[in-house]
Design brief:
The complex is a heterotetramer, with 2 copies of chain A and 2 copies of chain B. Chain A is of the alpha+beta class. Helices cover 23% and strands 31% of the residues of chain A. In chain B, strands 3, 4, 6, 8 and 9 form a 5-stranded antiparallel sheet that branches. In chain B, strands 1-5-7-2 form a 4-stranded mixed sheet. The chains are: A alpha+beta, B alpha+beta.
Chain lengths: 81, 159, 159, 81
């Protein structure tokens, strides 16, 4: 059941985790599972509702399924402009 | 066309690309770095941009604006990197036959760009502190986009 | 500040005057001469301006915009004389702390300028004819201004 | 009762009247009276509701009173921008 995923962190997430990218093995069915498990691991508190996720360079939904080998991009609250 | 740039935005050059003999109106918006945010004195700003998705999501926003309003040309350019007070962080330009479409499309594009593109800004304050901008109250300008993922969770800067 | 000019409008220079370290948003509008109006092929346009009142009425419009919306700086420049296709006939620029005020004030100013200032345009068509523009259906963008004289009779161009 | 007024015509009005300015003697109490009488004289058909008037370089109302010696500016429908 465990999937090997590449996870990339941006902006505040990167600074909080202390790294920009890591490879993890997780029992995760959806992007939401990845977020929840890594948030616990890194002790972050940003509400999921304020964040975004992309899978393999496509904007995704928190309910999007993750597959073995996927690259998950975790975006903290954006602030362009 | 959506573009990310690491050097100064030059609106007078960008405007040229929107000229059209059928255009009667041209609306543009620029976001400038201001010296204050939420009561903090800002020294400079740092924009982090995830370029591959910022470009594709920006292109989607522009395409949506062109589908909603009868515009002739629409473009957006966003800066990345370190910016000083007064510098232009983002530029949107729209030309159309009549002014209504230019205004509405310009507003639509900047509103969506601010809440949907993977861009983050870190404020450096005069007191030496710094912080990533991510205020909840700023989502009030987000439009409802039926096709956009995560529309309910859009959060952005409040300029 | 409202100004009438007989030479080319240079937005990049006008924009400088609106810069302000407290400004986070800058909205501008330009009216361009287009090659078609109401099904007629337009060759060029001629603007007649009664300058003393165009300036005082324009200043009033800008003052109203500044009273209605929290803007930092607002200006408008209108051309007089003969203009070719693609030339800029009118420019409005507004800077403010937040973008909402800049957009709304910019739109307010151009809408009012078009229906209140003593400015007339004569279209010269490719077929050799010419005519003063004065279409009734164009008053639809006029705002209600309680202090303005003749508000009910405002008629203007439809760009 | 007759008042001596300077009347200035602009744009289409000037072209229609064939002159930019004239001095007239009219029995006119308001700007509306001036408009009506001169429209008849010059055979113009522009509805008053689409036009504007200024008296001595101040925007005025059609009900504004006119005084001997005033300069009346008659503006056909404007079309800025």
């Amino acid at each position: 059941m465990s999937k090997t995923l590449t996870v990339r962190y941006f902006a505040g997430f990167r600074e909080h985790a202390g790294l920009g990218e890591e490879t993890v093995s997780l029992n995760a069915a959806t992007a939401r599972d990845v977020f929840d498990q890594l948030q616990t691991r890194h002790g972050s508190a940003e509400p999921l509702a304020h964040c975004k996720v992309a899978i393999n360079d496509e904007m995704a939904d928190w309910n999007s399924p993750v597959r073995d080998g996927d690259t998950i991009l975790l975006f903290p609250p954006v602030a362009g402009g | 066309m959506m573009r990310i740039t690491h050097s100064a935005i030059r609106p007078e050059e960008l405007r040229e690309a929107l000229q059209d003999p059928a255009a009667g109106g041209y609306a543009s918006f620029e976001g400038w770095i201001r010296n204050e945010n939420d009561g903090h004195d800002v020294l400079r700003l740092e924009y982090e941009v995830y370029e591959p998705l910022a470009v594709t999501e920006g292109e989607k926003v522009i395409a949506e604006a062109c589908a909603k309003f009868p515009v002739l040309h629409a473009q957006c350019v966003h800066r990345a990197g370190l910016l000083e007070i007064g510098e232009c962080a983002v530029w949107v330009g729209v030309s159309s036959a009549h002014r209504d479409a230019a205004f509405l499309a310009c507003r639509y594009i900047i509103d969506e760009v601010k809440v949907r593109l993977p861009i983050w800004k870190k404020e450096h304050y005069t007191d030496g502190h710094s912080g990533w901008v991510s205020c909840e109250r700023c989502a009030r300008h987000a439009h409802k986009i039926s096709t956009a993922p995560l529309q309910g969770s859009a959060i952005a800067g409040d300029r």
